[in-house]
C-alpha cells in the first residue's frame, strides 16, 4: 500500500514536471521568435533608415538602384483588413445572432457545423477558389481589365474571418443571462428590439473580441491573399493590384539575398509588431470586459 | 523506446529546418553544409535555378539509374543563389538560367547545357498572333496599353509576370530590354499561376517556359518566328535564354561530379533534355 502511494506520488511529480516543461517550451518559442525577429529585422531598418523604410512609397528590391519602402504593403494590409472587417463583421454578427437566438435548434446545429467546416478549410483552397472564381467575376462585374486586386482580396479575407467572428460572438451572445431578455420582452419590446438593444450591448466585449480575432486572422493571412491580390508593390487602390505585408515576405523570401533578405525580415518584424498590438488590445478588452 | 525515437525525429527535423532556413544567411550553417557535401564524395550537389528543375531532374534520374552508388541532389534556390553557392563551395555544380555576369566569370565557368525558349502567351480568344520584341517591350513598359495597337481587338492589355527574382522574368526582361521598367498587373510566383491566369483572362499577356505551356493558352510568334526546337536552337526565335552549369575555375570537380557534368553536356543527354521540355545545344 505504502509503496503504491509512493509510486503515485512520484508519478504525480514527474507529470507536474512534464507539464511545466511543456509550458516553458511554449514561452521559449515565443521568446526565441521575438529575439530572432529583432536581431534579423533591425539591421536592415538601420541600413535603410526607419523613415525611408516605413514611409517609403517605392519597393524595388531587385532593381539596379534598390529601394525599400514598405508603405504600400502596410497600407494594403491595413485597407485589406479594414475592408474584410467591414464586410465580414456585419455578416458574421448577424449570423451569430441568428444561431444563438432566432433559429430552431436543428438548423442551428447544421449551420454551426458548416461554420466549423469553413474554419477548417486550408487557406490555399480559399486562394484557389478566389483565383478561379472571384477574380474573373470581379473582372466581369466591374468591367476591369484584371480582377486580381485589393477588392478580390477583401472578399476572400471577409469569408475567411467569418468562422472566428461567428463562433466567438455566438458564445458571447449565448452567455447573456436569459433574465435580461425576458425583462425586455416583458416590457413590451419586440424580439428584434430585444436582440439589438439588450442582448448585443450586453455581449459587447465578446463581440469586440471576435472582431479583434478576425483582424488578427486577416492581417496574418498570406497564401490566399497572394493568389488573388496580384502582388505588385503599388500604393493600394481598391481596384488595383496590391501586395500585403505577408505576401511581400512570402513571395520574395525564397530567392532573396543580402540587404533584400534582411529587409524581408524587417517586414516580418513590422508584421509581428502589428499582431502583438492586436493581441495587446485583445487582452485589454478581455480584462476590462468593456 | 518509442519516446526516444520521437525525440530523435523531432531533433533531426529541427536541425533540418534550421539548416534549410538559413541556407545563405548565417555563415555558421554554410560551413556545416559544406562539410556535408564534401564528406561523401558520392553525392553530387546541385543548387540553383528553379526553372531548371525539370532538366536537371531528368538528367540526374537517368544518371543515377546508371550509377547506383551516386546520388545527385538538387536544391531549387534560384539562379543567383546557385551561383553564390558554387562560388562559396556549398555545392558541386551551380545551376543558372542566365549567362554569368562579368564579375561572376572571374572565378566561375559557365557551360551551356540546354536552351530554354520563353513563350509569349495570350488567351486563346485573343486574335493577336505575332508580336515584335519591340512591341512586347512596349507592352510591358506600359507604352502600348491596348490590344488594337498590336493587331488585337479593342481591349486593354493586362501584363502578367513573375516575381522579381524569377529566372524566367530575368531572361524575359533582358531580351525585351524592360529591366526594372515593367508595369505588371500581377506578379505571380509560379509558371503554373501565370498560365492559369492568362487562360482565365481574355486580355492578358504573360510569359513562361515553352516547355510548361499547355494548350489552355496560345503562344504567339515573335517577329514572325514561332518557338520550335529548330528556331530556338539556331537563335531565330529571340526570346530565349541559356541553362548554364556553373563550376569553379580553379577547383577541379570531384570524380563523380565531373562524370555527371560530362554526361549532362554530352550528346547522350540530348534526348533527356528534349523530354524535359528544353532544347539541347546545337553541336
From TrEMBL, chain B:
Ranges of residues in domain PBP: 35-267
Source species, domain of life: Bacteria
Keyword Ubl conjugation: no
Entry-linked InterPro entries: PBP_domain (IPR024370), Phos-bd (IPR011862), Phosphate_ABC_transporter (IPR050811)
Keyword vocabulary terms for this entry: Cell membrane, Lipoprotein, Membrane, Palmitate, Phosphate transport, Signal, Transport
Subcellular location: Cell membrane
Keyword set includes Membrane: yes
Assembly and binders: The complex is composed of two ATP-binding proteins (PstB), two transmembrane proteins (PstC and PstA) and a solute-binding protein (PstS).
Biological role: Involved in the system for phosphate transport across the cytoplasmic membrane. Part of the ABC transporter complex PstSACB involved in phosphate import.
Family per similarity comment: Belongs to the PstS family.
Annotated protein name in UniProt: Phosphate-binding protein
Lineage, opening ranks: Bacteria, Bacillati, Bacillota, Clostridia, Eubacteriales
Amino acid at each position: 500500500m505504502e509503496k503504491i502511494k509512493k509510486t503515485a506520488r512520484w508519478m504525480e511529480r514527474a507529470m507536474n514536471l512534464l507539464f511545466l516543461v511543456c509550458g516553458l517550451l511554449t514561452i521559449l518559442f515565443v521568446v526565441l521568435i521575438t529575439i530572432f525577429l529583432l536581431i534579423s529585422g533591425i539591421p536592415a531598418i538601420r541600413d535603410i533608415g526607419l523613415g525611408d523604410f516605413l514611409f517609403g512609397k517605392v519597393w524595388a528590391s531587385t532593381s539596379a538602384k534598390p529601394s525599400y519602402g514598405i508603405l504600400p504593403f502596410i497600407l494594403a494590409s491595413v485597407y485589406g483588413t479594414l475592408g474584410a472587417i467591414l464586410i465580414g463583421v456585419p455578416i458574421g454578427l448577424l449570423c451569430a445572432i441568428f444561431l444563438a437566438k432566432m433559429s430552431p435548434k436543428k438548423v442551428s446545429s447544421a449551420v454551426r457545423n458548416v461554420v466549423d467546416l469553413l474554419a477548417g478549410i486550408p487557406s490555399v483552397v480559399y486562394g484557389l477558389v478566389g483565383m478561379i472564381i472571384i477574380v474573373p467575376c470581379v473582372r466581369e462585374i466591374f468591367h476591369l481589365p484584371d480582377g486580381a486586386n485589393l477588392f478580390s482580396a477583401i472578399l476572400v479575407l471577409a469569408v475567411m474571418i467569418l468562422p472566428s467572428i461567428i463562433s466567438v460572438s455566438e458564445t458571447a451572445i449565448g452567455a447573456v443571462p436569459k433574465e435580461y431578455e425576458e425583462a425586455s420582452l416583458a416590457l413590451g419590446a419586440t424580439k428584434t428590439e430585444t436582440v439589438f438593444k439588450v442582448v448585443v450591448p450586453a455581449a459587447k466585449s465578446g463581440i469586440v473580441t471576435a472582431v479583434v480575432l478576425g483582424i488578427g486572422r486577416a492581417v496574418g493571412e498570406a497564401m490566399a491573399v497572394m493568389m488573388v491580390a496580384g502582388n505588385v508593390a503599388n500604393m493600394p487602390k481598391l481596384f488595383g493590384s496590391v501586395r500585403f505585408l505577408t505576401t511581400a515576405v512570402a513571395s520574395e523570401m525564397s530567392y532573396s539575398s543580402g540587404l533584400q533578405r534582411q529587409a524581408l525580415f524587417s517586414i516580418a518584424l513590422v508584421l509581428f509588431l502589428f499582431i502583438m498590438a492586436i493581441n495587446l488590445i485583445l487582452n485589454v478588452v478581455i480584462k476590462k470586459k468593456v | 523506446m518509442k519516446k526516444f525515437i520521437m525525440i530523435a525525429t523531432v531533433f533531426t527535423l529541427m536541425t533540418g529546418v534550421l539548416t534549410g532556413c538559413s541556407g545563405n544567411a548565417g555563415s555558421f550553417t554554410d560551413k556545416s553544409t559544406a562539410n556535408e557535401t564534401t564528406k561523401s564524395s558520392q553525392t553530387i550537389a546541385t543548387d540553383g535555378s528553379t526553372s531548371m528543375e525539370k532538366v536537371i531532374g531528368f538528367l540526374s534520374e537517368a544518371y543515377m539509374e546508371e550509377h547506383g552508388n551516386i546520388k545527385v541532389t538538387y536544391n531549387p534556390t534560384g539562379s543567383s543563389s546557385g551561383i553564390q553557392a558554387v562560388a562559396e563551395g556549398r555545392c558541386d555544380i551551380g545551376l543558372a538560367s542566365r549567362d554569368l555576369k562579368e564579375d561572376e566569370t572571374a572565378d566561375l565557368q559557365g557551360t551551356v547545357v540546354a536552351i530554354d525558349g520563353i513563350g509569349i502567351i495570350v488567351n486563346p480568344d485573343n486574335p493577336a498572333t505575332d508580336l515584335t520584341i519591340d512591341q512586347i517591350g512596349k507592352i510591358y513598359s506600359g507604352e502600348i496599353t491596348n490590344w488594337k495597337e498590336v493587331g488585337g481587338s479593342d481591349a486593354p492589355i493586362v501584363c502578367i509576370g513573375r516575381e522579381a527574382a524569377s529566372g524566367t522574368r530575368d531572361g524575359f526582361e533582358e531580351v525585351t530590354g524592360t529591366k526594372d521598367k515593367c508595369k505588371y498587373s500581377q506578379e505571380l510566383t509560379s509558371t503554373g499561376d501565370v498560365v492559369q491566369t492568362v487562360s482565365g483572362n481574355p486580355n492578358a499577356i504573360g510569359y513562361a517556359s515553352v516547355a510548361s505551356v499547355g494548350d489552355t493558352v496560345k503562344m504567339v510568334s515573335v517577329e514572325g518566328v514561332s518557338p520550335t526546337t529548330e528556331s530556338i536552337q539556331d537563335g531565330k526565335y529571340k526570346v530565349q535564354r541559356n541553362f548554364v552549369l556553373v563550376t569553379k575555375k580553379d577547383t577541379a570537380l570531384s570524380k563523380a561530379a565531373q562524370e555527371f557534368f560530362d554526361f549532362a553536356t554530352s550528346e547522350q543527354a540530348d534526348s533527356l533534355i528534349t523530354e524535359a521540355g528544353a532544347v539541347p545545344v546545337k553541336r
